Amino acid sequence: MRFARKHILSSSAVIALAAGISIGLESTAGAAALYAKTGTSVSHSYVFSNVDSGDMRCFGPELDITDAVVCYRYDRNATYVQSKKASGNFKLGQHAAGGNTWRCRNNYANSSGTGTWVECKWSTKPAAGACAVLRVGHGQSDWYVVSKGSFTMCF
C-alpha cells in the first residue's frame, strides 16, 4: 500500500513538471532564449577581414579548454569558432547577453580540422549597448563543457 501511494505521488509530480516545462516553452517574448547552430566553414582571412576593433572580441584558450577559440563580430552579427587542435571533440563558442545565449559549433574534430574556422550568423543579436560574455567549449554527441566566462564586452 505504501508503495502505491509513493508511485501515485511521483506520477503526479512528473505530470506537474511536464506541465511546467510546457508552459515554460510557450512563455512570453521576454524570456531568455538559447540559439544554437552548427557553423559553416570560413577562412581565417574572412573572419578578420575589414574588422573595426570596436566590433570584434575573441576569447580562448582557457586552462580547462585549450582546443578552441571563439570570436564574436557585432558588425556581422556572427560567432566564429576555431578548432585549435584535434582532440576528437567538436568545439563550441558562445556569447551571452541580456539572458540570451548564442552558441556556435565547429564539428571539425579530427586532425584535418586543426586550425579550421566556422561561422554562425544570427537573426537576433544583443541590443545596442548590451554587454556580453564569451565562452569556449568542446564535447561529443552525449556531453559538452564550456569554460568560465571571459571578460565582459560591451557594444
UniProtKB/TrEMBL annotation:
Signal peptide positions (record): 1-31
UniProt KW keywords: Signal
Name listed for the protein in its UniProt record: Secreted protein
Organism: Nonomuraea angiospora
